[in-house]
Amino acid sequence: MIKTIADGIRFLLEIATVVFLIIAGFNSSDLVVKLTVGVIAPVLGILFWGRFMAPMSLHRLPTIGRVITEILIFGATSLATYLLTTHKAALIYGGIALIDTLIEHLIP
């Protein structure tokens, strides 16, 4: 039951990650940051996640690789959101991502 809920939250987190990166990027006044954070990072994130993180991927990373990648991706998104948009949204997103990642990998 908890795992099913965590899986649903994980899916929403994946979508929120892309949305927050786009919003954070386009809130910047610097064109390079807009393109890097708002366009390139979300596209590369989607491609990477589909190739190496998706449950049915043929090239799925081992558990430790997925945990490290999730910490990096969710952490970077939280940081970008914190620096370029609202602090409250970044902290809520980061907290949910942390709790969900712990549940995903600690509950069998």
Automatic annotation (TrEMBL):
Keyword annotations for this protein, in alphabetical order, are:
Membrane, Transmembrane, Transmembrane helix
Q: Enumerate the InterPro entries for this protein.
A: DUF2568
**Which chain regions cross the lipid bilayer?**
9-26, 32-52, 64-84
Which superkingdom is the protein from?
Answer: Bacteria
Name a Pfam family for this protein. DUF2568
What's the protein called, per UniProt? DUF2568 domain-containing protein
